[in-house]
Amino acid sequence: MSDANPLLRFDYLVDQRAAIVAAVLEHLELTVATVALGLLLAALLAGVALRWRWLRPTISAGTAALYTIPSVALFALLVPSTGLSRSTALIPLVAYTLVVLVSAILDGFDQVPRPVEEAAEALGLTPRRRVLRVRIPLALPVIISGLRVATVTTVGLVTLAAIVGQGGLGRLILDGLRRAFWTPLTVGAVLSIVLALLLDAAFVLLERRLAPWAVRRTARP
Amino acid sequence: MSDASTPAVRLVDVRKTFPGAEGAAVERLSLDVPRGSVVALIGPSGCGKTTSLRMINRLIEPSAGRVEVEGRDTSTVDPIALRLGIGYVIQAVGLFPHRSIADNIAVVPRALGWDRARIASRVAELAELVGLEQDQLQRFPDELSGGQQQRVGVARALAADPPLLLMDEPFGAVDPVVRGRLQQELLALQARLHKTIVLVTHDLDEALLVADRVALLDRGGRLAQYAEPDRLLQEPAEPFVTEFLGADRSLRRLALREVGELSLRDGPVVTRGTDRATARAVLAREGGDWLGITDGVRFLGWVPAAGLAGEGPVPEDDLEAPAALVGPDDTLRAAMDRIMTARTAVAVVVEDGRFRGVVTLELIRRALAEPHTPSPQTPPSPEPSPEGSR
Fold first, then answer.
1. DSSP letters spanning chain A
2. Which domains, and CATH codes, for chain B?
3. What interface predicted TM-score (ipTM) does this complex get?
4. Could you tell me the residue range of the domain that residue A55 belongs to?
5. Cβ <8 Å between B57 and A119
């Protein structure tokens, strides 16, 4: 490794700071879009699995099967139909979140204590109120754990979307690889890790805010 | 719509079969629960007691028959409206872990759309009623002890002041000491509120203690006997009942009665200063080796018969403190226990320091021979209770 190609060159950071910021924002955008769409879809699938219990094994197996498709292959597979577009990046990314999110939602609902559900019904809460005021809030800590895993995984996977011309920080990494120039690779990798950690921390704060009771419970010896 | 004579709950030929189950869970059960009374459903596991309870508020729909609450056929009432008007307490308490104690208590008033101020004052009132500290109201259920959680469960059930309360093994999840305390609290609460309470339990002592009437169910939901606790114990209707009640039926009956209900005797007791000849006569009439002495109000102690020879007032120098003391609130079982433990023949009854008489084993035995007239209870008031009647 020559001096001209160290792991990090500061002049690159200064020259390319606009591009770096843009890459971070794109990365964040793709991650948020992926997790948001994933959550929406997972909620639908979980809702179906809870409503029609016999579909549950099929849905679980289906989301797990999606997860086994190698991501690079899936990106490549989509290029002929959706081109080098954002959809090409989003479809696989969203698909990969489903296995974690669907099972998190189902597990979350499963672990709502039976007596609590029974009390809610017996006291005269409407089915709608029981879901909104009791089951969802009580499932929330488990769902948030699922979101944390899905988000951190997605931040990493987004870098692979660079091969279809998306991918935020992944583009810096790809650029570094192509040119055998380490600095963009280092910047891309480090910022991707930092982004993952920051988003994870954000969820911890979110959980504290939305489920203070669960935080207090785990905080006790 | 319903007058005072309409039973608060009436089951008419109610039957429940579950799909795939062999036989009926409940077989043609008919039962009237009088207004303002506590009825315990008890029986071995699989007797359908919980199923029967749940058919009252339509958590389970009967397969046949009719359930009436306050004279209305429940199948014609919207289940949500029905349940909002009935308090419910379950064994595992089932508090909402994500809500504060205050919010837990406020669940039904909120569902009924009460305004904030009314809810807040009702919550404070209920906390006081069931013995919760105001500073516990903002905690989460997990931060309270099992007994406290159960009190919250009762407060939650009472929140909208329903006339009817269903309790499914309400004290099953707490240790025996706390259970005993909660049972006493329920009795005290009931004495103030005069609710109609239907309670499921597998604990015979609990049923006998808290219930005005006990419905004993056999497997398959057949009603074996429905009677007051003392009647049940004294006149079991069939071998199953006898077997279920166990070998110590009479001892259990003793636990149902209080010393104050007996017509107490004065016994071998005289007032201080009585002359010895009179004392000897009293002792000869009453029997025994010891003579009790009072000062007209308090019981002073016992003197041995041997010390009564000769003339003059009864001596007071060798007074022995009574070994067995009871109060009018003690059960006959406790009185008997004290007599046995002290290895004496009589227990002295003292109320607020005043001598009331003596209890002997013979008196207790005779009390058991007669049927029990239930202790005077405040009759159920037709008016709504003062609590929360706004």
1. --TTS-S--HHHHHHTHHHHHHHHHHHHHHHHHHHHHHHHHHHHHHHHHHHSGGGHHHHHHHHHHHHHS-HHHHHHHHHHHHTTSHHHHHHHHHHHHHHHHHHHHHHHHHTS-HHHHHHHHHTT--HHHIIIIIIHHHHHHHHHHHHHHHHHHHHHHHGGGGGGT--THHHHHHHHHHHT-HHHHHHHHHHHHHHHHHHHHHHHHHHHHH-HHHHHHHH--
2. 9-247 (3.40.50.300), 260-369 (3.10.580.10)
3. 0.77
4. 30-219
5. no
